[in-house]
Predict the 3D structure of the following.
Amino acid sequence: MSGFGGCGKNKVERRNGATGLPDKLCRTAPPRPHSIHQHKGRKTVLELYQFELSHYSEKVRFILDYKGLPYRKIEVTPGLGQIDLFRLSGQRQVPLLKDGHEIMADSTAIALYLDEKYPEKPLIPTEPFARAQTLILEEWADMSLGLKGRTAMIGAFNQDPEFRKAFLPTQTPSQLQSLVDGLPDNVRSVGNLMASSVPNLLKNVVGAVPGDLLSMGGAVAGFGPEAVKLANQDLARGLEALSLMLADKPFLVTNQPTLADFAVAALTMYIKFPASPTLNLPLSLKGKGVPGLADNPLYETFFKWRDDLYLNYRKIDETTPPPPSDGSPQKISID
């Protein structure tokens, strides 16, 4: 088994996150609530500014839970809610972590910071080859699974009636469900839906898309049929590779979790939403995903592995209230 140690700050920062076994896992206890006593010696609780449905925020939540670091989630509503975020950090993206006077954005930068400052349960191996594998897989997860997963999810929303209905709250009148189901493609584009009465849950997902991807007319650029098709093809190859890698090993790189495992697990969230109670998602979305990927038996090994990773390393947060359901921005207090 490869040795582990602090990761340092030698990885170049690139994009900002928001714009994710049979007896192989060593821990089998069910998820536990967050507790401020989980990390001895800490007097303050970390603050994570996030979108609940951001897969890059989920990557940071995975790491915080794995290291047993107590944290408080602060839900940021895309748009107005990001103004206070800009005042705090000079930028508008999530995830953003506040640790006392330390403030940092970008899920990878946050992961490297946490591994250096809180070296218990390290994320990055010290053995050179295992270290290289971990960093390469984490980068691939960020730039391929994360970005293409979002494209595939938005494509599925546009094209699949059942997946589209899953975004509607359970109390939505049947007439509205039928209306959304029957929208023609040109009207059903996510850009147009953002201006309608589509639930805030979907608005939050689309709100995480960088502003330069939104055209002046409100239609979403880069999510057309050809882009969705290519994204699905690339994701299929990636899921096949991951399933083969995990066929006879507990984790992607070593015999214990690394940053690569948590990045891959989190950044496949849009491909198939986890059924785990650790995520504050509508029941209608849990276990749902991109048709042809989420329900393909060829990738069952991977999604079973991810389910076990959630069971063993993500914790239920019973202290944080759900995000606002009325569309109003979350107030952020700034010290």
Remarks:
- The chain has eleven helices and six strands.
